[in-house]
Amino acid sequence: MAGSNEMTINLVVLGRTQTGKSAAGNSLLGSSDFESHHSPASVTTCCSLGRSCRISGIIRRNGCELALRVRVLDTPSYPHSGLSKKQVRDAVRSALAHHFGEEGLHLALLVLRADLPVCPDESDHTIQFIQELLGPTWKDFTAVLLTHADKAEEAGFSEEEYLHSASSTLLSLLNSVQHKYIFLDNQKSIIKEERAIVLRKLLNFIRQNNYQVLLLKHSKE
Questions:
Q1: How far, CA to CA in Å, does 154 sit from each of 24, 115, 147?
Q2: What 3-state DSSP class applies to 70?
Q3: Contacts (Cβ under 8 Å, ≥6 apart) of 87
Q4: Beta bridge partners of 49
Q5: What is the pTM of this model?
Q6: Which of 21, 144, 170, 205 has the most C-beta neighbours closer than 10 Å?
Q7: What is the pLDDT of residue 41?
């Protein structure tokens, strides 16, 4: 974690091209560490680690306030317009082991667009990819970030109405990860208060998992 007066959480963002994965990472960090823009091709081509400054006012333990630090590993999308599945998988595995091999990973954030349907084949491929990366306990260490929630809101859906109307594929995925999901607005830069809400939700997911971490080692496969 960190020293006695602060806590560090280690996160990795995973997802398809143009889901807002890198933008979500920037929102969590409160920075613009990761390149993020619309493009006809996949933008992220290699893994990159971003670190937040000390964040206060987010977490208290045993009656004492702790400073929070967030580390986010941005990754190439899968499927990728210029890299094979093996290239993406090997790059992410290596980066996870390099950056989080000692302290462990708290959460993998699967980034999906709230304004696009999740189809069975897409979900199956994504789940298989995450299983290959994280192993059999992937469900305990995975949460879903539903980006572009502003588009769903513009279409007249509240979060509850959206989930009521969502495909069985998405609902099955959310059920698999014990309903660990967060809606994220991509329309505007996330403000401090909204970022604090998202970070508190992530910390609650980590707390529900008893602050366990997933230890990832270099694979020779």
A1: 20, 10, 13
A2: strand
A3: 80
A4: 73
A5: 0.92
A6: 21
A7: 66
